[in-house]
Amino acid sequence: MRYRGRFAPSPTGPLHFGSLVAAMASYADARAARGEWLVRIEDVDTPRARAGAIDAILNALERFGFEWNGPVWRQSQRQAAYEAALEALASAGLVYRCACTRRERAGDPLGRIGERIYPGTCRDGLDAQRRVRPRTAVRVRVPLAPIAFNDRLYGLQRQALADDVGDFVVRRSDGLFAYQLAVVVDDAAQAVSDVVRGADLLASTPRQIFLQRALGLPTPRYLHVPIAIDANGAKLSKQTGARAPPSALPALEAAWRFLQQPAPPQELSSVREFWTFAHAHWQPSRLPPVAMMPAPAAYN
């Protein structure tokens, strides 16, 4: 199978250091394997998208020397494909309507991975109180058997969706498709062979593998890399005010060191020279097997 990787940012703000780390890992992994690297904008959650963010992200990627294959996909233009996937799940009897509110869900128990476990309130149909509510979400019925997969860094992972998550949402009550469904449909449509992304998404992978199996789609290889956190221990993100790095080459070198990759034998003079070195010396085996690490002070 030809290697095909992807970077899929959400357009909620600029490309910050944490995003750069994820982009670098996926890009270096693809190019080291002489594979293709795609860019997909995950704007399925349209209310969270910020005006101008897509252009800002793409311009930043170009400034940092990333070169992608083919056109940039946007999830907001893929609604028909997600609808077809939802219909396939419905035909298999795997989905049902749910009218539970966030307030009602606030009392659900927390599971092992830190998410609230849906107790199946609407699994056998809506009760009289919920039947009259104007908006309903769509949930997928999860299996009792655990989902297992091998992560290229963290090794064997096993999760019982019924115990750790419960039936999860594939279409929200506002009509928008959930990330879990959209990412599965798009990875298959783009023939993605390898997913390299932040470790904060490791716990989502069993849900995605379950949907892949339910829809008859291939499962990519997965490599999750440590995420960068700020001085308060929070993930660097647009929501916490993470800003775009001002200078390309120093930020690339800082992200490379963050991923604990081999140091270049001499000082690099340009972004192009950096990537020539990085593609030839990328070593996933050197990645630190931890979920998160503090970002360098200059980007924290």
Description:
The chain has 300 residues and is of the alpha/beta class. It folds into two domains: 4-78 and 190-299, HUPs (Rossmann fold, 3-Layer(aba) Sandwich), CATH 3.40.50.620; 80-180, Rossmann fold, CATH 3.40.50. It is 32% helix and 17% strand. The strands form five sheets. It has a three-stranded parallel sheet with strand order 1-2-3, with helices on one face. Strands 4-5-8 form a three-stranded antiparallel sheet. The protein has a two-stranded antiparallel sheet with strand order 6-7. It is elongated. 39% of the residues are buried. The model has no long low-confidence stretch (mean pLDDT 93).
How do you describe this structure in short?
The chain has 300 residues and is an alpha/beta fold. It has helices at residues 17-32, 53-63, 79-91, 102-105, 128-131, 161-164, 179-189, 205-215, 248-258, 271-281, and strands spanning 4-7, 36-41, 73-74, 95-98, 137-140, 147-151, 155-159, 168-171, 194-198, 221-225, 227-229, 292-294.
Oligomer: single chain
What's the average pLDDT?
93
The percent range for strand residues is 15-25%
User: How many individual helices?
Assistant: 10
| Unreliable stretches | none
What's the overall geometry? elongated
Query: What is the CA-CA span between the terminal residues?
Result: 39 Å
**CATH class category label of the largest domain:** Alpha Beta
Structural class, by secondary structure, is: alpha/beta
The H-level CATH homologous superfamily of the largest domain, spelled out, is: HUPs
Query: Which value, in Å, is the CA radius of gyration?
Result: 20 Å
